[in-house]
Each structure stands twice: as C-alpha cells, then as structure tokens.
Design brief:
This protein is mainly α. The protein has 2 domains: 133 residues, no CATH class; 42 residues. The protein has 6 helices and no strands.
C-alpha cells in the first residue's frame, strides 16, 4: 500500500488520539526507512528511479533496500521494538502500534513481483504472494473508495452530532430562563 493510504487508514484507526502525528509517522516509517531514503537521494541526484528496460517498470534499487524492507516490515522486529519501548516507558506506547498495522496491511497487499512482505524476518523469509496487490488499479480504486466512504461517514456523523448537541444546549438554556 502507498504511504498516503497507510496514513489515511491510521488516521481512521487512531482518530481519537490526541497526538495523531505519532501514529501517522509510524504508519509510513517502514516505507520511508526502506524505500523513501533511496528515492529521495535518487530524486536529488537526478537519477532515474525507473528502469524502462524492465517489463513491469520495477523500481531500480540497490542491494540494501530488500534488507531494510525486511527489517521494517517484520512483525518479529516490530514486536521486539514494541516490547523494548514498553519496558523503557513502563507502559505500551500505542502510537507505535501503527507500525504493526502497516505490516498487517502490507501482508495481503503485496505480490512476489513487488516487495512481498517477509513478516517473520529474521526467523523466516515466508511472504504471501497476494493477488490483491495494491498497485493494481482496481485494488487502489476500492481501497480509496472505502477510505472516502468511511471519512465521509465520520465527517457527516460527527457534524450531525455537533449540531444535535448545539441544538440541545440551546433548548436547555431557553427552558432554564
């Protein structure tokens, strides 16, 4: 899944969190720390990130990217980091859970052709070869349609609730007079 969709799903899941930016950061961090750094350096240097000689236009990447991807997309690594942070803070830091959600979303969202998620790394290289690849235009359309519907529903419901509370408070003030 792309970083925009990850951040939008995280926004829905953590919408009642006071510091929403931490979960959003952790929801995009796995992709930023595996692919984003290379992408940024390539863009700054003016290097093409697409190899047009390849059939599927797969991104050109150095050898380190798959290793970084395996580390940042591993439930094992996530669990270890989550537990270490929990021990240090003496309570779970739920914002970090957005990283785990990112991995869970990516497991069925990637195919073997493009970054299948090695969610048990370093214990295993097992990855799901999904037919629901997020790069598929139909999957993208469905994903963003669901996000739009959910955000619209929350927006409308929240506004309707605010209008009801405002109306109720105004009526209550009139009754007290």
């Amino acid at each position: 899944m792309d970083i925009f969709a990850h951040s939008l799903w995280t926004g829905l899941i953590f919408r009642k969190t006071k510091k929403i930016w931490w979960p959003i950061f952790f929801s995009v961090a796995p992709d930023i720390f595996s692919n984003g750094i290379y992408l940024a350096i390539s863009v700054v240097r003016g290097v093409s990130i697409i190899d047009s000689s390849r059939e599927h236009l797969n991104p050109v990447r150095p050898e380190i990217i798959p290793i970084l991807y395996s580390i940042t997309h591993s439930l094992v690594i996530f669990a270890i980091v989550f537990l270490i942070v929990w021990l240090i803070l003496k309570k779970p830091w739920w914002a970090l859970g957005a990283w785990g959600i990112h991995i869970l979303i990516d497991i069925p969202g990637h195919s073997a052709k493009f970054f299948a998620t090695p969610f048990l790394y370093p214990l295993s290289s097992l990855a799901v070869d999904s037919s629901m690849n997020w790069g598929n235009s139909y999957i993208l359309f469905i994903n963003y349609s669901i996000l739009a519907i959910l955000y619209l529903w929350i927006f409308l419901f929240k506004n309707r609730r605010k209008r009801f509370i405002t109306y109720f408070n105004e009526k209550r003030k009139l009754i007290k007079r």
